[in-house]
Design brief:
The complex is a heterodimer of chains A (about 110) and B (about 110). With about 110 residues, chain A is mainly beta. Chain A has strands at about 5, 10-15, 20-25, 30-35, 45-50, 55, 65, 75-80, 85-95, 105, 110-114. In chain A, strands 2, 4, 5, 6, 9, 10 and 11 form a 7-stranded mixed β-sheet that branches. Chain A has a 4-stranded antiparallel β-sheet with strand order 1-3-8-7, with no helix packed on it. In chain A, a hairpin with a 2-residue loop joins strand 5 and strand 6 (about 55). The termini of chain A are far apart. Chain B is mostly beta strands and about 110 residues long. In chain B, the strands form 2 sheets. In chain B, strands 2, 4, 5, 9, 10 and 11 form a 6-stranded mixed β-sheet that branches. Chain B has a 5-stranded antiparallel β-sheet with strand order 1-3-8-7-6, with no helix packed on it. The chains are: A mainly beta (about 110), B mainly beta (about 110). The interface of A and B includes residues 41, 45, 101 and 104 of A.
């Protein structure tokens, strides 16, 4: 059982480049989300989805796009990378959106924007 | 605004007991989570509290007081592998998770 799979694990971009972080889960989870983690700060929600075809913005959505065409996949697109987007990104999923919503995280993607 | 406070770093000795505190101010409350995160790895779930009181799971226990906006994670019989960051997170009235910055726990032999 793979759980949540994120790729790539590491990426270096130049300012202005675009890229997509991939996330896939095989647990039939309804809820999927993207977080960024920066030193000295809590995890911050970028975008989330409560089911296929449904996405919504989190706390820090600017500069990022998402789509949810299938239950399994939830890619995160950086439209025009900026140094402020240097961070560690985590994809996370859970079975439901309320109550004891225990998240399963992917291994993380470390992004550096020069 | 919404806020979760936890100490930045704590040090403890192998075999001892340590208590990591978390205080929160959020718009509504629908549960509190503790996650463990080893350096360079993903967070993993430790505990969930929604009612006041103590939840025990082996060497780890988590306590919640909703009236005080306070929780703690208690780790007993510390082992070197417990060296990690411990993240406190609260589910608000919209069922969104608000995360603390984490407490880095250093275990010394």
């Amino acid at each position: 059982n793979a759980g949540v799979t994120q790729t790539p694990k590491f990426q270096v971009l130049k300012t202005g480049q675009s890229m997509t972080l991939q996330c896939a889960q095989d647990m039939n989870h309804e809820y999927m989300s993207w977080y960024r983690q920066d030193p000295g700060m809590g995890l911050r929600l970028i975008h989330y989805s409560v089911g296929a075809g449904i996405t919504d913005q989190g706390e820090v959505p600017n500069g990022y796009n998402v789509s949810r065409s299938t239950t399994e996949d939830f890619p995160l697109r950086l439209l025009s990378a900026a140094p402020s987007q240097t961070s560690v990104y985590f994809c996370a999923s859970s079975y439901k959106t309320s109550g004891a919503n225990v998240l399963t995280f992917g291994a993380g993607s470390r992004l550096t924007v020069l | 605004g919404q806020n979760i406070d936890q100490p930045t770093e704590m040090t403890a000795t192998e075999g001892a007991i340590v208590q990591i505190n978390c205080t929160y101010q959020t718009s509504g409350f629908n549960g509190l989570f503790w996650y463990q995160q080893h350096a360079g790895e993903a967070p993993t779930f430790l505990s969930y509290n929604v009612l006041d009181g103590l939840e025990e799971k082996g060497r780890f226990s988590s306590f919640l007081s909703r009236s005080k906006g306070y929780s703690y994670l208690l780790l007993k019989e510390l082992q070197m592998k417990d060296s990690a960051s411990y993240l406190c997170a609260v589910t608000d009235s919209n069922y969104q998770l608000i995360w603390g910055a984490g407490t880095k726990l250093i275990i010394k032999p």
